[in-house]
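FAQ

Q: What does a record look like?
A: Structure on top, sequence underneath. For example:
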């Protein structure tokens, strides 16, 4: 009788523990708990409703933190329907993480144009719903979704909800601010983007009691009150030194290698730059004849594709030369190109594939070229063909780097390129020179991601198959696909944006990474790449000369390096003075390239100087007002977690084991 009574008591104790904030979220889940995620749930579990912004650095598992909150609320029966709003490119990644957290697939729904009517007929069954921002910002769709009794709304990449955007007014105002009793979790690795009004406006969506103006709230006293209440912001350094007390995140280095270019390769780029520069000068005298965005966009697109690889240059220039019936140059087409070149794949929300949009734009703009332009383009195309025939120095450098990796270790590599033409070119040449690698090479572009089964097959192969060691991908995976099974990353083209580099590095330098991360960028010794290196990278990063190269690379003349953590320190905007007033402008990759083409290195250096000035101003502002970050100690973290009875996960799990014994 006593034995049965004891067993009954222990059974009840264990059953009650299943509702504990440190236990409930992890039941049936295939994940490892981390102390910073426990800290968040420890502070939030007593609130009703929970309304919070998780602004941890990239790679700290914000998705899991949000789902820990969701599963805890679900265990308490406070949540039955969860809406997860994400950029289109993140939909599949969220689906995968829901399954890892132990959510049955039968409870996961995807809101799309072709599924929403079917789901409406079923009165939106209980479960987890994933919807793209693009779908919900449409007037006819938001009205269908806004009145569903969502118990919890999670919005990822919430920094895209600028206070002037449709997302802010349609989704933020209607689904968050107007429903004050609803649980809401905002996620963003860059919660503050240099504009205090923009940041405070998002916090006001969360907290209905913040009724003062943004100027009245923009002070240290307010920001300090948000830490651990409205905002959680932790860094990789915090995790290593304060939360876990060990190296959870290994070191990460960025390497900038300058590869010697043959005379014909250097001449091709110089001639290309001069041609594009002349087109911009001509356009300056023809304003008003066509949409002012068209020629600048065309020059940026030609520049980016032609400097990607000789094959991408050849196919792009040949397309411009084809005399075909040109599609209409609509505002929608121009908007699509501008959107991608300004923001990149991570914010691209059009249905069409980016390469299809680019090709359509090239076809539509080719009639704007003069006969003199065509003759110059023909010669440039022939130069690109000749380079391919003689041998591509950058491709040879890449191959030697891969030979070192493939010959010595079981490491996995991701090669990022922006264009499918270059992706095909790399794969074809790798297999030609190393046929034994054929079974080790995977490709991932928008073609593969459109087929969910194929996308999942490729991703699983790279994650789990030890023979699949080289993944060549476009930026479709730079945002939203976790690839920490690889620790070597190669940028085949030079990114003219440090934000893009941070996103790419963040795919591998994240929770679960076991090895030191290497991020290589191949700079060619030509006028364009050297301008980017000397006028941008050298000034924005603390680049130092490397005494030894981690990998032998054919033709490498100079090797510089920096700690990858520096990439998190740059504002995506710059602050300029106009008529005595501060104005915040977004610096995009397209703007940097156009500045270089229009004003050469002097203009680019002036732009970079404004970025550095903005960086210093933003850092002063954030530090003086304690906007995002407030230093804490290990004892403070333990005291927070200790409010729920345990100082860290190991103490709880050791106790549970003893009870079971």
């Amino acid at each position: 009788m006593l034995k049965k009574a004891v067993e009954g008591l222990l059974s009840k104790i264990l059953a009650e523990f299943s509702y504990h904030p440190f236990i409930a979220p992890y039941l049936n889940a295939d994940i490892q708990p981390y102390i910073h995620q426990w800290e968040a749930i420890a502070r939030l579990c007593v609130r009703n409703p929970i309304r919070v912004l998780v602004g941890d650095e990239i790679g700290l598992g914000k998705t899991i933190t949000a789902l820990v909150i969701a599963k805890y609320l679900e265990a308490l029966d406070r949540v039955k329907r969860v809406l997860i709003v994400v950029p289109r490119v993140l939909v599949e990644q969220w689906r995968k993480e829901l399954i890892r957290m132990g959510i049955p697939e039968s409870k996961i729904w995807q809101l799309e144009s072709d599924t929403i009517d079917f789901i409406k007929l079923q009165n939106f069954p209980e479960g987890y719903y994933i919807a793209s921002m693009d779908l919900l910002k449409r007037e006819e769709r938001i009205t269908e979704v806004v009145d569903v009794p969502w118990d919890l709304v999670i919005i990822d990449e919430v920094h895209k909800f600028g206070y002037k955007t449709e997302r802010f007014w349609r989704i933020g105002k209607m689904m968050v601010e107007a429903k004050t009793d609803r649980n809401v979790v905002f996620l963003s690795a860059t919660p503050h983007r240099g504009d205090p009004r923009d940041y405070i406006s998002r916090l006001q969506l969360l907290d209905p009691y913040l009724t003062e103006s943004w100027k009245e709230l923009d002070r240290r006293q307010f920001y300090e009150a948000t830490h651990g209440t409205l905002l959680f912001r932790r860094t990789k350094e915090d995790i290593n030194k304060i939360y876990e007390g060990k190296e959870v995140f290994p070191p990460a280095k960025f390497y900038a290698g300058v590869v010697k270019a043959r005379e014909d390769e250097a001449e091709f780029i110089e001639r290309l730059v001069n041609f594009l520069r002349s087109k911009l000068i001509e356009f300056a005298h023809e304003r008003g004849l066509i949409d002012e965005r068209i020629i600048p966009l065309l020059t940026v697109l030609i520049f980016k594709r032609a400097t990607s690889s000789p094959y991408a240059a050849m196919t792009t220039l040949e397309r411009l030369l084809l005399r075909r019936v040109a599609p209409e140059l609509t505002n929608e087409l121009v908007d699509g190109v501008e959107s991608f070149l300004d923001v990149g794949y991570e914010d691209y929300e059009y249905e069409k594939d980016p390469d299809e949009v680019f090709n359509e734009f090239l076809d539509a703009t080719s009639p704007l070229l003069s006969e003199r332009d065509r003759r110059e383009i023909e010669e440039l195309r022939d130069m690109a063909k000749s380079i391919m025939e003689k041998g591509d120095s950058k491709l040879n450098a890449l191959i030697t780097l891969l030979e070192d990796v493939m010959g010595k270790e079981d490491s996995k590599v991701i090669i990022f390129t922006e264009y499918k033409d270059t992706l095909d070119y790399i794969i074809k040449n790798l297999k030609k020179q190393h046929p034994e690698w054929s079974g080790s090479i995977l490709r991932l572009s928008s073609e593969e991601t459109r087929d969910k089964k194929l996308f999942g097959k490729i991703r699983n192969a790279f994650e789990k198959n030890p023979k699949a060691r080289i993944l060549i991908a476009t930026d479709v995976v730079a945002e939203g696909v976790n690839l920490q099974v690889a620790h070597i990353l190669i940028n085949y083209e030079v990114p003219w944006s440090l934000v893009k580099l941070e996103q790419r590095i963040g795919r591998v330098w994240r929770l679960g990474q076991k090895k030191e991360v290497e991020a290589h960028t191949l700079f060619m010794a030509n006028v364009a790449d050297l301008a980017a290196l000397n006028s941008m990278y050298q000034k924005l990063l603390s680049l130092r000369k490397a005494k030894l190269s981690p990998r032998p690379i054919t033709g490498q003349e100079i090797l510089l390096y920096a700690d990858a953590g520096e990439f998190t320190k740059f504002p995506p905007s710059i602050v300029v003075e106009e008529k005595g007033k501060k104005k915040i402008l977004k610096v995009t990759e397209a703007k940097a390239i156009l500045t270089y083409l229009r004003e050469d290195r002097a203009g680019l250096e002036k732009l970079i100087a404004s970025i550095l000035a903005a960086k210093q101003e933003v850092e002063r502002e954030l530090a003086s007002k304690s906007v995002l970050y407030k230093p804490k100690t290990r004892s403070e973290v333990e005291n927070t977690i200790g409010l729920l009875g345990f100082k860290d996960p190991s103490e709880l799990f050791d106790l549970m084991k003893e009870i079971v014994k």
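Q: Is there anything notable about this one?
A: The chain has three domains: 2-233+632-660, 252-258+391-569, 263-388.
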